[in-house]
Amino acid sequence: MTAFPTAIIPTFLMPLSILLHLVSLRHLFSAPARSGFDGKTPWTISQRAITEKPTDQRHFASNKGE
Amino acid sequence: MNIPLYVTASVVAVGAIAAIALPIILARVSKRAAPPVNVATPVGLALGAWFVLTTILAAVGAYRPALSVVVPPGGLALAVTLVGTGLALMLFPGLRRVLDHPVAQQGVMALQTWRIEGAAFLILMLLGQLPPLFALPAGIGDLFVGMTAPFMARKLHRPGMHRLAIAWNLFGLLDLAVAVGLGVTTNPGATQLFCTFPPQRR
Known about the structure:
The structure holds two protein chains of two kinds.
Chain A: H1 8-35, H2 44-51, H3 54-63
Chain B: H1 5-30, H2 40-59, H3 73-91, H4 93-99, H5 102-111, H6 119-126, H7 132-155, H8 162-186
Helix pairs in contact in B: 1-2, 1-5, 5-7, 6-7, 7-8
């Protein structure tokens, strides 16, 4: 694991993977509190309202036929 | 260590793809965030620079530890990268906001597909170049995470997937911790605890 090319795994890919797992966990643990997630409703619906532009919200509303 | 060309090519290719894919995901999501924020360019430059630097350092043998060195250079590089990325997340709220977007979350999970590279550990074990004590848990765990990553990404926002996604991420972290722990304790040097056959090569 210290020779080329396997040394690339612990020095580049592993830290990147750890970071991505931590980012995912942070999002997953904070999502229920932020969006009223009940474990059953797809929480992208409330997430979009928080994070996207008004135009995206209008587009989303039109998709629902409102 | 006589590593086959296809293993070398796959490791370098996977690293390059990872360095390119994350900025692409960030660029797509940045446009949809309110207000729009450009984090893809600095993240892409930083990742690209680190990938090129670490590939050069690995090629010139800079990660091979001296027997007297307490902290292996590879471990030091891992720690520096983790601290650096952690600081970037703390200091740039725009980056946190973009990564927190549901679409980015699917991309972040899908990126873990690179873990199928764990097959390289198993191939090198079969070629007698890595000890089973390290290669089996690290390789099988990585393969499992890599093969299930596309499924997890696609189903992430489906009802009932929340707990499974948390468990999957925790398993992925545990697998990496085991791989790092076994890598450190089977490599020749001051941190070696297990004498393995075949030995980990310096």
